[in-house]
């Protein structure tokens, strides 16, 4: 089987624990602006990247009801302060590390999101090997990689519905985010093993991966064997589309001002409708304004890409990310050239799957 060898190892760090209590469990973890995606040997899980701090009233209700739909996580931060949270909700009062600042990866909120993501899938005394990633414009800052590497060589304890879940992180590998999509386009996972599914991508001369996310769009330029030749990104993504939608509606529905963008996106995607102040906004109006916002966003994304590179120099261009799910038709209309255009299978989760595949490749080469 053809296997891609990566020459640049700047993205990799290995910080082993002295003693591993049990065999390591590999996870591809993508703590993105809008959603958290985790891929393991058992499959992939996706949920909104939000936390909700439980109030005294919330706790009282929990104690009185006993049973509840969402798990409750008790997390202790680096200052020793413990609080109870629910995760993955889309409602008023939720918090997220969403932002276009390099400070995101050093924030207490991001640390909480990272640790609770693993607590969500952890079993007793799990030892995780984590492969994660950074968008192009964040990847160039060594301090961002360092912030992610600090999660390694540590043991964590989180109460999940009152039961202690203890786990460790033995290794952290930090990958360039769009390269995760490339790997998930080249390989598939069959019975926990790698299978080559798209040999063409290992034969072409130039490949670009365009990752349209919630807050950023990232582009990686690579050669036929997956070697990185260039990268760039810009702070424009699906949050800008929903901000345009919100701006176009807010003059008629002023209560929208208080509703987070992620909640607006979730309501429309999951239910096909949107309420403002208890009033249902006309569906035709939503469809019309969404089309305008998506079209404007697709134009801006393609304009930024074309200002940075010549698409005519490419053999294959892979479009991925949660934004591609929404912008599929608008982007297709604005893509021209002789190169082959691919839209990744399951673009929302292609990065976490690629990170998991990267982990398998590292393991095959004796990296852990």
Q: Any overview of this molecule?
A:
- The chain is α+β, with helices and mostly antiparallel strands.
- Strands 1, 2, 3, 4, 5, 6, 7, 8, 9 and 10 form a 10-stranded mixed β-sheet that branches. The chain has a 5-stranded mixed β-sheet with strand order 15-14-13-18-19, sandwiched between helices. The chain has a two-stranded antiparallel ribbon with strand order 11-12.
- The longest helix is centred in the last third of the chain and has 26 residues.
- About 4% of the residues have low confidence.
Jot down its keywords:
single chain, 35% helix, 368 residues, ten-stranded mixed β-sheet
Give start-end ranges of low-pLDDT stretches: 5-20
Number of strands: 19
How much helicity do the residues have?
Answer: 25-40%
Q: What would you report as the Rg, rounded to the nearest angstrom? A: 21 Å
- Count up the helices: 11
The SS-based structural class is alpha+beta
Apparent shape: globular
Order of helices and strands: EEEEEHEEHEHHEEHEEHEEEHHEEHEHEH
Q: Terminal Cα separation, in Å?
A: 21 Å
Largest sheet: 10 strands, mixed
Annotate the secondary structure layout.
Blueprint: E1 12-13, E2 25-31, E3 35-40, E4 43-48, E5 51-53, H1 56-65, E6 73-76, E7 82-87, H2 108-121, E8 126-134, H3 136-139, H4 142-149, E9 154-160, E10 163-176, H5 177-186, E11 187-190, E12 193-196, H6 200-203, E13 206-212, E14 217-223, E15 228-234, H7 238-249, H8 261-271, E16 275-276, E17 279-280, H9 283-308, E18 316-320, H10 322-334, E19 340-343, H11 350-364
Parallel strand pairs: 2-8, 8-10, 13-18, 18-19
Antiparallel strand pairs: 1-10, 2-3, 3-4, 5-7, 6-7, 6-9, 9-10, 11-12, 13-14, 14-15, 16-17
Helix pairs in contact: 5-11, 7-8, 7-9, 9-10
